[in-house]
Design goal:
By secondary structure, the protein is α+β, with helices and mostly antiparallel strands. It contains 8 helices and 24 strands. The strands form 5 sheets. Strands 1, 11, 12, 13, 14, 15, 16 and 17 form an 8-stranded antiparallel β-sheet that branches. A 6-stranded mixed β-sheet has the order 6-5-4-7-8-9, sandwiched between helices. Strands 10, 18, 21, 22 and 24 form a 5-stranded antiparallel β-sheet that branches.
């Protein structure tokens, strides 16, 4: 049997807020706000050049630019900047930010908000829990309220830990969906890496791909080389850039670099995914368009969902170049680098998976509880098709299928030469509108004989599901004597 580790890093469960997914870098306030303006200004400049308006380029823009600065108030912001007369990182940031706020143009379509993190508790181990839960929207993303921005900046003080991922996750609920002529952007400001065991890189990537289409730029102040590499992926996964500054002079230089290098473009409309119903194979449904292509030459998990009711919905694709059977999945979960749970997949069907095709199942952990930021690793293996010469499992063709808020219904056909005796087992994986698997569902029916060549109806109830099963994959099998 072949096996290869397919690692999928993802927070579990992946929550959605207001119908969309909802995860800092340590430089004080200043550079973050300046870069925020750098996001807005290039759009306006290009419009101004066309319109001839040299006084206020943003006044000529018809684009909507929504920017939220996520500001570091961790305890390390109290450190003194080398070469200064006892000026702290926070002091320098506040002075620069207040100057920038005074120059922000006020026009329709430009909206600037401010969020802070690590501003409660302290940076002691005793207060870590409280500080790692501390993030707050201080100024909403609605126009440019300079008085509110100034008031909040003046009260900033270095305090606690650095929950970058939590802040990004909360920020997702602060934005409306993106679209044509709309730019949604986050400026993550930090003087250090994540210290609260979150995964800001994965969350930045999810936010960039979600309906709000957030671009995340990272501004790092006085970062060590290790810290810089640790936060680089936040910008990369979030579709943005990493700006670094080591002192007040390089901070100013970074601002000008941001103005010239950040190109503002409208947030793309959500990708239209083909959701027509596909039938006639061992797996049918209208969720194929949500699936990744998988790892070439391997078996890999291409979709998995939230850990709900003790189960983790899975979809596995076969790219081995040949049909396989008896797919097995071993699962390891880690949080903060430590092993927290192990388990395996159950309910995997169809039994035989053609090359390029998929099979579904669920991860089972014997009811174990584990942290929400658990990252899963999947070890997928299978035998070549035909290895098991005594199995009685018979995969069934899904001739027709449909679904509503109460059930997935359809018709199964027995294309095998022998009759099926006993129970028929049908199973499905539900997806939400954004392509996120939500749960694994199953029905066991029958008890009679399902003759070769015959067709029978099936129904899988989804009436008690927490989320509508608007998109799904479904399959069925029985057993021959």
């Amino acid at each position: 049997m072949d096996d290869g580790w397919f690692k999928a890093l993802r927070r579990i469960p992946f929550r959605w807020r207001n119908g969309r997914r909802s995860p800092a870098l340590p430089l004080g306030v200043s550079l973050g706000w300046l870069v925020a303006l750098a996001i807005a200004f290039p759009v306006a400049v290009s419009v101004a050049q066309e319109s001839g308006d040299d006084d206020d380029p943003l006044a000529a823009s018809t684009l909507t630019v929504n920017v939220e600065l996520i500001l570091d108030a961790s305890g390390s912001m109290a450190e003194t900047i080398p070469g200064t007369e006892n000026q702290s990182r926070m002091d320098a940031a506040k002075l620069a930010l207040l100057e920038v706020i005074a120059q922000i143009p006020e026009r329709d379509g430009l909206n600037v908000g401010l969020r802070v993190y690590g501003h409660q508790g302290s940076n002691s181990e005793a207060d870590r829990r409280a500080s790692c839960q501390a993030t707050e929207l201080l100024v909403p993303i609605a126009s440019v309220d300079k008085a509110a921005l100034v008031r909040q900046v003046e009260t900033m003080a270095p305090t606690g830990w650095t929950p970058l991922a939590l802040s990004l996750e909360a920020a997702a609920a602060d934005f409306a969906p993106g679209g044509e002529s709309v730019t949604n952007a986050i400026i993550m400001v930090t003087d250090g890496e994540e210290t609260c065991d979150g995964d800001p890189c994965a969350l930045a990537g999810a936010l960039h791909a979600a309906e709000i289409g957030l671009t995340t730029h990272v501004v790092g102040f006085a970062l060590t080389p290790t810290q810089r590499e640790a936060v680089r992926c936040i910008a990369e996964e979030g579709g943005g850039e990493l700006f670094a500054a080591d002192d007040a002079a390089s901070l100013t230089e970074a601002v000008f670099t941001a103005f010239t290098q950040i190109e503002t473009t409208p947030t793309p409309e959500p990708v239209e995914v083909e959701t027509d119903m596909e039938v006639g194979g061992y797996v049918a449904g209208n969720a194929f368009g949500f699936l990744d292509e998988g790892t070439p030459g391997e078996l890999s998990v291409v979709a998995f969902g939230s850990y709900e009711d003790g189960e983790l919905a899975l979809v596995i694709r076969n790219n081995r170049g040949e049909a396989v059977e008896n797919v097995q999945v071993e699962i390891v979960g880690r949080a903060g680098g430590e092993l927290v749970v192990t388990g395996g997949a159950q309910g995997i069907q169809p039994f035989v998976v053609e090359d390029g095709a998929v099979t579904i199942g669920y991860g089972y952990f014997s009811g174990a509880e584990f942290p929400e930021d658990t990252e899963f690793e999947f070890d997928v293996s299978a035998d070549p098709a035909g290895t098991d010469e005594i199995t009685g499992k018979r995969d069934l063709i899904v001739e027709e299928v449909n679904g509503d808020e109460d059930a997935i219904i359809g018709i199964l056909r027995n294309d095998h030469d022998d009759d099926i005796e006993g129970f028929l087992i049908t199973a499905g994986v539900c997806f939400d509108e954004a392509g996120q698997p939500t749960e694994y569902v199953q029905d066991i029916a029958g008890g009679g004989t399902f003759a070769a060549g015959d067709s029978v109806p099936f129904s899988i109830s989804t009436a008690l599901s927490e989320a509508p099963c608007s998109h799904f994959l479904v399959t069925g099998y029985g057993s021959a004597p």
